[in-house]
Design a protein that fits this description.
CATH superfamily of one domain: Tetracycline Repressor, domain 2
Mean pLDDT: 85
Strand content: under 5%
CATH architecture of one domain: Orthogonal Bundle
Distance between the termini: 19 Å
Helix content: 55-70%
Radius of gyration: 19 Å
Number of helices: 10
CATH topology of one domain: Tetracycline Repressor, domain 2
């Protein structure tokens, strides 16, 4: 599908809206705030979306859509459960490390949508969680002696808890590179803090370097053409 000038402008608005929602919270942000940040008039904003709630929906829907699409492509020919889990963790962390504002919005504003928009995002989230649970079930079935007593629901949400909290402390421009973050979280989750110290870092570093991970397809410049 062609990426039109309309699409570019909409992404520009959504990218800035995500940043402001992350900084101020959704409920503390007005359409006028977004208008000032983007240089798009209020009338112009309503040309691209019906409401502030629709902006929030589009941000969340785009995030889940992109991360799931990337995951499906990377898992297409993978059969080993452990490798699937490594890819899932790498895909999630690398994607959201490149989209920290959007990650914060997903985590903090999960309950801010209502009606059909909320249902549609919830369906996306449930499908994504189901994929994680299915992978963990495969891992558990392949290594029953190691983790047969671990509840799958606990394991699934513990994994998301580890990954989704990074927006509170991780700096993508800091001393810890994204792939180092992925290596550490993967090792912690798969082997634990104590046993993980015995593992070689090289074992966890087979995932390809991820580039161009922004949730948005257009360039990340400050301005966009109308």
């Amino acid at each position: 599908m062609d990426f039109t000038r309309y699409d570019q402008k909409l992404e520009f608005i959504l990218r800035n809206a995500a940043r402001i929602f992350a900084e101020k919270s959704y409920h503390s942000t007005s359409m006028r705030d977004i208008s000032r940040a983007t240089g798009v008039s209020l009338a112009g904003l309503y040309h691209y979306c019906k409401s502030k709630e629709e902006l929030l929906f589009l941000i969340q829907d785009n995030c889940f859509g992109r991360v799931i699409e990337r995951l499906e492509l990377r898992l297409a020919n993978i059969t080993d459960p452990i490798e699937k889990l490594r890819i899932f963790i790498h895909n999630h962390l690398a994607f959201f490390a490149a989209n920290m504002a959007e990650m914060k919005v997903l985590s903090h504003e999960a309950e801010s949508l209502a009606g059909d928009l909320r249902v549609r995002v919830s369906d996306r989230k449930e499908n994504y969680t189901r994929v994680a649970r299915e992978i963990l079930n495969e891992v558990q079935q392949s290594r029953p002696e190691a983790n047969s007593q671990v509840d799958l629901t606990v394991a699934t949400y513990a994994l998301f808890g580890m990954m989704n909290w990074i927006y509170n402390w991780y700096n993508p421009n800091g001393k810890l590179a994204v792939n180092e973050l992925v290596d550490n979280v993967t090792r912690l989750y798969l082997t634990g803090f104590v046993n993980g110290t015995q593992e070689s870092a090289a074992e966890w570093s087979n995932a390809p370097r991820a580039e161009g991970l922004s949730v948005w397809r257009g360039p990340g410049d400050k301005n966009a053409t109308a």
